[in-house]
Specification:
Helix content: 55-70%
Shape: globular
Structural class: mainly alpha
Radius of gyration: 18 Å
Oligomer: single chain
Largest sheet: 2 strands, antiparallel
Order of helices and strands: HHHEEHH
């Protein structure tokens, strides 16, 4: 059997992920928003966690401390997050979403979800759930 890259599950998965990221970047750019998809993901993560230490946001495989710090610096520059002293550890800082950041999420999230839903047109709710379940398995296997 001849190997064809476009028939490789890994290639299709990689390409789909890249296209989702590209569409998100385009969504932000088209609306004049100075935020990247990576910053958006970090902003949502900070918001979900409350006041995490920056080191809690580091993913050893995908995001190192320097990258998280750089992304957080950008979010702080545009007023969406702020750093706070960590009362439990003077060597680290906590980070939290500002009121402006919460408002930004509330304004952008509904439209972004609607835009991302276009990627899944033609899939039933059951198929989307199954896809999510399978991707979680792949993710766990790779971690």
């Amino acid at each position: 059997m001849e190997y064809r890259l476009e028939n490789s599950t890994g290639h299709v998965l990689y390409r789909a992920g890249r296209l989702l990221r590209y569409r998100a970047a385009r969504f932000f750019k088209d609306r004049g928003l100075s935020i990247s998809p990576e910053q958006w993901g970090l902003l949502l993560s900070i918001t979900e966690k409350g006041q995490p230490a920056l080191r809690e946001l580091v993913d050893g495989v995908l995001n190192d401390h320097a990258n998280i710090t750089r992304l957080a610096d950008g979010l702080e520059r545009i007023g969406l997050v702020r750093r706070l002293p960590n009362p439990a550890d003077r060597r680290s800082q906590l980070i939290e979403t500002t009121p402006q950041g919460h408002e930004f999420i509330d304004q952008v999230l509904p439209d972004l979800l609607q835009e991302k839903a276009k990627a899944f047109v033609g899939l039933s709710e059951e198929e989307k759930s199954e896809l999510f379940r399978m991707l979680r398995i792949v993710q766990k296997n790779m971690e």
